[in-house]
Amino acid sequence: MKKTKEYGGIDYFRIIAALLIVAIHTSPLASISNIADFILTRVIARVAVPFFFMTSGFFLFSNGSAKEEKIKRFLKKTSVIYLVTIVLYIPINFYAGYFYKKNLLFNIIKDIIFDGTIYHLWYLPAAILGVALVSLLIKYMSLNRAFIISCILYFIGVFGDSYYKIAAKSAVIKDVYKVIFIFSDYTRNGIFFAPIFLLLGSLVSKNINKFKKKEGLLYLYIFVALMMVEALLLRNFNLMRHDSMYFMLIPCMYFLFSLIVSYKVSSRKEFRN
User: How high is the mean pLDDT of the chain?
Assistant: First the structure.
């Protein structure tokens, strides 16, 4: 109970994150400037989904330990939501011709586990798979080792996403990613994307008492600027397969989330809904 009262900043930022996700799917600045829209929707708005993963990690894996009862409730609740949304989207899947694909059974299994049965649902299986994977990592090794493994997975994911055309220059590496893309359309999923941010949330909970706001804000400005440079260079040199994963996104999220939880404001449960 104490945490929800102390960390109400998370509830307020949920609204901002939700609006940023809407922006990603609507490109509100596209008619004004392609560069401005890219910066808003493909750089700034990319903090939204990691924020939600970090929120889960902050509470489920606080202080580097797995809260088993909370994890079970989270997995059960998220699975029910996912099942309901799969059913709700069936008519749209029919309309889009989803059920006329080749290898339908394989595609259904693949999408349920990794991609979501429609594009927007990818977050739910990623959350389920990511939380389950991080739970196992923390159970059998230290938080630091689990974090190193999640960094390696993210590194693999980045080169299947924003840096793909660099990785694809090697025929061997390109073939490896071809195999990955048989099972998941993107590396932005519960294996390569979610674990690092779930564990970042855990690290923030462990280190929040040592966090200094002024220094954190300065570092946030620096890493946001570096992420913009990174994204614009990738775009300029046409290196992206997708644009969800940047190296600078990790330090950006650490300092952003630390700032959010460092402000002690009252909880707003209605914002969570």
Answer: 94
pLDDT tens string 194-214:
999 999 999 999 999 899 999
pLDDT tens per residue, range 226-235: 999 999 999 9
Residues 6 or more apart whose CB falls under 8 angstroms from that of 221 comprise none
Three-state secondary structure along the chain? CHHHHHECHHHHHHHHHHHHHHHHHHCCCCCCCHHHHHHHHHCHHHHHHHHHHHHHHHHHCHHHCCCHHHHHHHHHHHHHHHHHHHHHCHHHHHHCCHHHCCCHHHHHHHHHHHHCCCHHHHHHHHHHHHHHHHHHHHHHCCHHHHHHHHHHHHHHHHCCCCCHHHHCCCHHHHHHHHHHHHHCCCCCCCCCCHHHHHHHHHHHHHHHHHCCHHHHHHHHHHHHHHHHHHHHHHHHCCCCCCCCCCCCHHHHHHHHHHHHHHCCECCCHHHHC
